């Protein structure tokens, strides 16, 4: 796996935009300040994950072709039609954001602590260590695919109480 890719950072920074409570907190009418109706907000999330399984299968097929090409690699030719690291970067990014979700997005003190840990590990060490090592320092465990699968609509969403 390549050292930290920009893909990891783009996914970790864009992930929160899809969450219902965040959408509800920022989506306001430009003149009246009225919040987005909850039913409209709740319809956005399923629309984002529509056909998530099909899209993931397509990406996995690309990865399979990529691996096949690597096994038949000839120097001087392009070695990849698909960057397999992108899927893994997504798994890491969604699992990182899950640390903030698990703390509760309305728990300011805990979010500050996690944000500081994020800054001191992921942001500070990013290019100096392998991504899995940095992730382990931040989360204290190996990456799990659950958040990635949930974000893509392949596991049920966790509804905040």
Automatic annotation (TrEMBL):
<keyword id="KW-0482">Metalloprotease</keyword>
<keyword id="KW-0862">Zinc</keyword>
<comment type="similarity">
    <text>Belongs to the peptidase M3 family.</text>
</comment>
<dbReference type="Pfam" id="PF01432">
    <property type="entry name" value="Peptidase_M3"/>
</dbReference>
<keyword id="KW-0378">Hydrolase</keyword>
<dbReference type="GO" id="GO:0009507">
    <property type="term" value="C:chloroplast"/>
</dbReference>
<dbReference type="GO" id="GO:0004222">
    <property type="term" value="F:metalloendopeptidase activity"/>
</dbReference>
<keyword id="KW-0645">Protease</keyword>
<feature type="domain" description="Peptidase M3A/M3B catalytic">
    <location>
        <begin position="88"/>
        <end position="153"/>
    </location>
</feature>
<dbReference type="InterPro" id="IPR024077">
    <property type="entry name" value="Neurolysin/TOP_dom2"/>
</dbReference>
<dbReference type="InterPro" id="IPR001567">
    <property type="entry name" value="Pept_M3A_M3B_dom"/>
</dbReference>
<dbReference type="GO" id="GO:0006508">
    <property type="term" value="P:proteolysis"/>
</dbReference>
<keyword id="KW-0479">Metal-binding</keyword>
<dbReference type="GO" id="GO:0006518">
    <property type="term" value="P:peptide metabolic process"/>
</dbReference>
<protein>
    <submittedName>
        <fullName>Probable cytosolic oligopeptidase A</fullName>
    </submittedName>
</protein>
<dbReference type="GO" id="GO:0046872">
    <property type="term" value="F:metal ion binding"/>
</dbReference>
<dbReference type="InterPro" id="IPR045090">
    <property type="entry name" value="Pept_M3A_M3B"/>
</dbReference>
């Amino acid at each position: 796996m390549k050292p930290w890719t920009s893909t990891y950072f783009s996914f970790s920074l864009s992930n929160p935009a899809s969450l219902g409570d965040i959408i509800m907190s920022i989506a306001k009418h430009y003149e009246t300040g009225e919040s987005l109706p909850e039913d409209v907000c709740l319809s956005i999330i399923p629309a984002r994950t529509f056909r998530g399984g099909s899209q993931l299968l397509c990406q996995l097929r690309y990865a399979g072709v990529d691996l096949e090409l690597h096994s038949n690699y000839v120097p001087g030719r392009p070695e990849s039609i698909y960057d397999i690291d992108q899927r893994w970067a997504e798994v890491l990014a969604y699992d990182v954001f899950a640390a903030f979700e698990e703390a509760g997005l309305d728990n300011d003190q805990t979010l500050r602590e996690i944000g500081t840990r994020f800054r001191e590990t992921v942001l500070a060490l990013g290019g100096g260590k392998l991504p899995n090592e940095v992730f382990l320092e931040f989360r204290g465990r190996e990456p799990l695919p659950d958040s990635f699968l949930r974000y893509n609509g392949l596991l049920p969403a966790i509804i905040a109480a």
